[in-house]
């Protein structure tokens, strides 16, 4: 160590500090990307399906009300308006179902989604039947379907929607906890490495001070000794 040039020691020390700083930066960037990815997954697989499931349930309840009103409506113009609203809601439900299906990422939710799709398919057949009856002027027959087979199918569909919604909420909670844990771990690692970097910089400063002052002090001491000898 004594035979190593001072310039080499300085360069080595600065490189050591630079390496630690680089590690701190890399870990920070990696942690940030992990957190960003986790947040994106939380939005894609939890927030989006929750919104879709909620809208699906709301539209379904509105459909039941519209079918009831359309089956009782005597004015042809208003009845057509209600049937047009029914068609629009059914299209929205089909789009929401695609969004929900694209965000399902666990075996449990896939199974619940299949139950939901089966319930929607069964109720869709009844809606087709009621639509034909209403358009043919058989409002009472459509109302009868709505209050019998439609009521049973509606209960099954509501149950499927509720179970999928609850499962999505539970998964969102677990994902949120994981994200929080990841953020805490990332902060701990970053703070630890930053602390190591600070300590290393302080130690390097002391070391460099000793390495530079000792030769200078020895040189000064030698010069002073030589001056004393000359004076004598």
Structural class: mainly alpha
Order of helices and strands: HHHHH
- Give the strand tally: 0
Stated plainly, the CATH topology of the domain at 31-192 is called Four Helix Bundle (Hemerythrin (Met), subunit A)
Main beta sheet strand tally, sense and closure = none
Report the portion of residues in β strands. Answer: under 5%
CATH architecture descriptor name of the domain at 31-192? Up-down Bundle
Stretches where pLDDT falls below 50 for ≥5 residues?
none
Measured between the Cα atoms of the first and last residue, the distance is: 38 Å
Task: Give a description of the structure.
The chain has 232 residues and is mainly α. The protein has a domain at 31-192: Four Helix Bundle (Hemerythrin (Met), subunit A). The protein has helices at residues 6-72, 76-103, 107-135, 139-147, 149-231. Helix 1 runs antiparallel to helix 5. The longest helix is centred in the last third of the chain and has 83 residues, at 149-231. The protein starts with 5 loop residues before the first helix and ends with a helix. The model has no long low-confidence stretch (mean pLDDT 82).
């Amino acid at each position: 160590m004594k035979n190593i040039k001072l310039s080499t020691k300085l360069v080595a020390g600065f490189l050591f500090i630079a390496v630690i700083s680089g590690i701190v930066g890399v870990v920070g960037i990696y942690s940030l990307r992990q957190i960003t990815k986790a947040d994106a997954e939380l939005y894609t697989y939890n927030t989006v399906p929750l919104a879709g499931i909620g809208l699906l349930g709301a539209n379904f309840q509105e459909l039941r009300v519209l079918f009831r009103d359309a089956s009782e409506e005597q004015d042809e113009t208003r009845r057509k308006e209600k049937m047009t609203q029914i068609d629009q809601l059914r299209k929205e439900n089909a789009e929401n179902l695609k969004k929900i299906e694209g965000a399902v990422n666990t075996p449990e939710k896939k199974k619940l989604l299949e139950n939901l799709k089966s319930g929607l398919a069964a109720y869709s057949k009844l809606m087709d039947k009621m639509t034909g009856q209403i358009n043919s002027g058989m409002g009472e027959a459509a109302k009868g379907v709505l209050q019998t087979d439609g009521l049973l199918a509606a209960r099954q569909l509501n149950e499927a929607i509720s179970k999928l919604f609850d499962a999505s909420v539970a998964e969102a909670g677990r994902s949120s906890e994981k994200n929080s844990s990841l953020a805490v771990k990332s902060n701990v690692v970053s703070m630890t490495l930053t602390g190591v970097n600070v300590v290393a910089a302080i130690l390097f400063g002391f070391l460099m001070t000793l390495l530079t002052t000792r030769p200078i002090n020895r040189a000064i001491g030698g010069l002073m000794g030589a001056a004393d000898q000359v004076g004598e």
